[in-house]
Each structure stands twice: as C-alpha cells, then as structure tokens.
Specification:
Elements: E1 9-14, E2 18-24, E3 30-37, E4 40-41, E5 44-45, E6 52-54, E7 67-72, E8 76-82, E9 84-90, H1 95-114, E10 126-130, H2 137-150, E11 156-159, E12 172-177, E13 194-197, E14 205-209, H3 210-227, H4 235-251, E15 255-259, H5 263-282, H6 285-290, E16 292-295, H7 303-314, E17 319-323, H8 326-336, E18 343-347, H9 358-374, E19 383-388, E20 393-397, E21 421-423, E22 434-438, E23 451-461, E24 466-471, E25 481-484
The structure holds adenosine-5'-diphosphate.
Keywords: ATP-binding, Membrane, mRNA processing, Nucleotide-binding, Nucleus, Transmembrane, Transmembrane helix
InterPro entries: Clp1 (IPR028606), Clp1/Grc3 (IPR045116), Clp1_C (IPR010655), Clp1_C_sf (IPR038238), Clp1_N (IPR032324), Clp1_N_sf (IPR038239), CLP1_P (IPR032319), P-loop_NTPase (IPR027417)
Main location: nucleus
Length: 492
C-alpha cells in the first residue's frame, strides 16, 4: 500500500449500532483497518488489523459504490489513512430493520431445508428489492446476500438493473450464486454468471441513427433560416448554417439516445433468466433452499412499474422489499394481496445513500466496461484481434427503431417486432460498440441464449474488410453469433 503522510492517519471510535460513512476522494486512495471490536462493510465482516485499500474514485475507479459505510453491531475502532471527500459517523441507521428482515429470511431458509422433498416447502425465500434510483437497493441486496453467505447459504443473486447492475457490464441482466460474503473492495465474484444481453442501458432507449438525426435537424433548421430577415441572408449566414450542421454531424455520437421503449425484449429476457434458474433450482436442493435476492431498476413509474410487477410474477417472488417509497409500497401491497403468500415490506432508506447524477452514473457504466476488459486494478490483459468481416455474424435484436437501411441487406425491411433478429452489415457505425458473444448455435436461438462475454470494436477497415476488436482473451470467440445494441465505450 502507498505510504501516506502520518498526519493523515486517524482513529475513529464507533459506538454500538453506529456507522462510519466514507466518501472516497476523487483522486487520492484511502486505506482503512479495524483496530478492535467487530465491524462490517455492506454486510461483509472486515478482518481485524488488515489494511483494506480503496482506490481513488476517478483514477480508474468511478465505482458502483463510491461511498462506503463501516457499520458495527457492538462497537469498534477504525483506523483510516489517506484523504476522503467526506467522512462522518452516524448513529441513526435502518440496519436493525434490515437485519430483522434477514432473520425472517433465515428462518424460511431453514424451514425449506427441513423439507427437501416437498416441491413447495423446499423453496427458500425469493426476495425482490424495489424502489426508486438511489434508494439503496443494490446495497441492501448485497447485505442480505453477504449475511446469508456468512451463515453458509448459497443464495442466488439476480440483478435486473440494466443501467447500474453489479454483476456484469451494463445492458445485461444476470444471475450468479453467492457462496461467500461479498468482498467490500472487489465486489461480486464473476466466476460463472448467467448473463442475458439486452444491449441498452435502459429499456427506454431508442436508437436514432446519426444521419437521420442530422437530416431531421436540418429540416427543422431550414424553415427557421428562412424566417431570418433577408438582409442577413448573406453568404456568411449560410456558411454559418453549414458550419453548425457540420459540427452537429461530427460531434453527434453515431447513436443518439432518444425516448421510446424496448420493454418487450427486456421482459422476454427476464423470463428466459427466470426459466433457467427455475430449472437449476429443480436439480439443486441447496440453492433452492437458499432462495434468491433480486435487485431491480430504479424505474418505478408507468412502464417501469409494470416491469416490476412482471418481474415479481415471473420469478414468483415471495418477499417484496420496498425501499423509501411509501406510494410504491401501498400500490404493490394492494395489487399483490390477492396473490397470496407474497409479503410486501416497507423499509427505510439509509441516510447514507448518496445520489448519483446522470453523469456519475454514465461514468460508472463506462468504468464497469473498463473493468470487464482490464480488471479492477488493471490486472487483466485483453487481446486485440483482427478478423475478416465475413468471420463475424452480427445481429441486432428488434426493439427501438429499425436499423438504418444502410446497415441492412438490400431489400430487407427494418424490424419492428421487439424480438425479431436483423442481421447487421458491418460499417463504420459499429466503431466503439460493445457486442455480446452469444452461446447460440443458430440465429433463432439468440434471444433465448445467454452470452459468453463481450467484445469491443476498436477499428473497422472498409478497404481490407477487416475488423479489429478487443476481447478478454486471445483465440477464437466462444460463439459465432454476436449481438449488437446501443452500448458504446470510449477508452478514457
Ligand atoms: P440503488 O441501487 O437504489 O440505486 P445504491 O444501493 O447503489 O442505490 O446506493 C447508492 C449509493 O449510495 C451507492 O453508490 C453506495 O455507495 C452509497 N451508499 C449506500 N448506502 C450507504 C451508506 N449506508 N453509507 C454510505 N454510502 C452508502
């Protein structure tokens, strides 16, 4: 660990049931250790005396969890070394109510374990955490999973948040078994996640092709231009218009995000994931009894609310934890009361939860993609590969507006069915896109197949018809079919 000036070392004494909230500094690392007592970070106990290193926030770490909390049930002394953006202790936390939920879940797991042969009773709790963005859903999911793992359960973590998920890169829904308390620094282990690729960081995306966008802007701009009094209609003015148009064209990302919905695809993928897990549970008494913890998107209104109901239904959730939104809680309680056996529980949001603005969220998405290729601390070495256009079969899955005609085979009609597949012809617009490598053996299987991993397009040579991409490892891809969405990444 880097040596820090001695003045930066300080001790914090925490009383029982209090927490130390730390927001990591943007550019300086922080380390911290437990001197005495016991304490945990997001549900994972920290080992005594060992320094834990937190990288600075903006180095290559615009992290999913830029702020931390060290909570103690019985009292502890913490030593910190380095600078922080802010740090303070809080004695008002909702932790007691969270751990009470855990106790109830634990009892249900034990009950499930006691009757392994009964198909209904052997099912452990299926918990779904819902609430608005930045209400602490991911944090609560993490704590519940870590507490369960500490007691020897192997619960399944399902993350349905395609914008700010914690299992894999954005644009995906995923599931993974949690066998050990989640490491406070490293996060969820990524051994064998089951991943489905949606391709967009929100189901609300619609992709508008750059050329379409610019043509439309021009169509709008021209009548406005005509309204300008004639004496300004000099060459300067028309040059100005063209200059603005050119700037717009060059600086508009090749895919502009617009408002619409690719909700149907999202639902289809949620269903696929639920079915696979159901099958896995059928053959595994242990994970069946441990149940699952499902994290959701922060979209709770309108179609977002519909998607929550869809997820509750599809996964057969038995416990719905509602964070920080009274209205959502009463709506869900009302709707689900006829369903029987679904507990809808209202929980308080922690005062420590930090809201992240759109820019921070965008950065954390980019960071997550960087982490996929380069590792948490630059410890992975991805490979750059060059292949012929004809070696890759790229498909776009319905949704959003149809693919630009220029990207389609001649005569093909742009897709409108949300799950219809359209082959994509390679052109410069694919540059910087992140594509998923499907396990599908046939194009028809793409929707229902999970993905093996991702590649990032770094160069397209139209003359030699070669495409250069970055992949986690060298060698051929684990599948022939690639899925394209609107997920792009620009290496910082
Ligand atoms: P959501 O999943 O609902 O969007 P998160 O669980 O990601 O919300 O919480 C938002 C942010 O708040 C996270 O980045 C996390 O670092 C921070 N956070 C959550 N709980 C605490 C806490 N008790 N103390 C300090 N920071 C916290």
């Amino acid at each position: 660990a880097p040596p820090a000036p001695p003045s930066a070392v300080r001790q914090v004494k925490l009383d029982k049931e209090c927490e130390l909230r730390v927001e990591v500094s943007p550019d300086a690392p922080l380390r911290l250790r437990l001197l005495n007592g016991t304490a945990e970070i997001f549900g994972t106990e920290i080992p005594p005396q060992i320094w834990l290193n937190f990288p600075p926030r903006f180095k290559f770490a615009v992290r999913r969890f830029p702020s931390w909390t060290v909570f103690t049930w019985y009292g502890a002394t913490i030593e910190m070394d380095g600078t922080t953006e802010t740090d303070y202790t809080a004695d008002e936390t909702p932790m007691i109510s969270y751990v009470n939920v855990h106790a109830v879940l634990d009892a249900r797991r034990n009950r499930a374990k006691a009757s392994p042969s009964d198909s209904d009773l052997s099912q452990g709790p299926r918990v779904i955490v819902v609430g608005p963005t930045d209400s602490g859903k991911s944090t609560l999911s993490r704590m519940l999973l870590s507490w369960a793992a500490k007691q020897g359960w192997k619960p399944t973590f399902v993350d349905l948040d395609i914008g700010q998920g914690t299992i894999t890169i954005p644009g995906c829904i995923a599931a993974t078994p949690i066998e050990l308390p989640i490491d406070p620094v490293e996060g969820v282990p990524l051994d064998m996640p089951l991943v489905y690729f949606h391709g967009h960081a929100t189901p609300r995306y619609l992709i508008l092709h750059r050329k379409t966008f610019c043509t439309w802007s021009l169509l709008v701009a021209y009548p406005l231009y005509l309204l300008v009094p004639t004496f300004i209609h000099s060459q300067v003015a028309s040059l100005g218009l063209w200059a603005i148009f050119s700037v717009l064209y060059v600086f508009t990302p090749s895919y502009v995000v617009h408002f619409s919905a690719n909700v149907d695809l999202y639902k289809v993928l949620v269903k696929e994931l639920a079915q696979i897990l159901e099958r896995q549970f059928a053959g595994n008494v242990e994970s069946r009894a441990a149940g699952m913890v499902i994290n959701t998107m922060g979209w709770t209104e309108g179609v977002g609310y519909e998607l929550l109901l869809h997820a509750i239904d599809t996964f057969n959730a038995s416990v719905v934890l509602v964070l920080g939104q009274e209205k959502l809680w009463s709506m869900l309680k009302d709707v689900l009361k006829n369903k029987g056996n679904v507990d809808v529980v209202k929980l308080q949001k922690s005062g420590g939860v930090v809201s992240r603005n759109a820019k921070v969220r965008q950065k954390s998405r980019a960071y997550k993609i960087r982490e996929y290729f380069y590792g948490l601390s630059n410890d992975l070495s991805p490979h750059s590969n060059i292949v012929n256009f004809s070696d890759l079969c790229i498909y776009r899955v319905g949704g959003g507006p149809p693919a630009p005609r220029s990207a389609l085979p001649i005569g093909a009609e742009p897709a409108t069915d949300p799950t219809r597949l359209t082959p994509v012809y390679i052109n410069r617009d694919l540059l910087h896109l992140v594509l998923a490598v499907s396990y599908a053996k046939e194009p028809e299987e793409i929707i229902s197949s999970n993905v093996a991993g991702f590649i990032w397009i770094t160069d397209i040579n139209l003359e030699s018809k070669k495409i250069t991409y970055l992949a986690p490892s060298a060698g051929s891809l684990p599948g022939k079919y690639l899925i394209m969405g609107s997920l792009t990444w620009y290496e910082p």
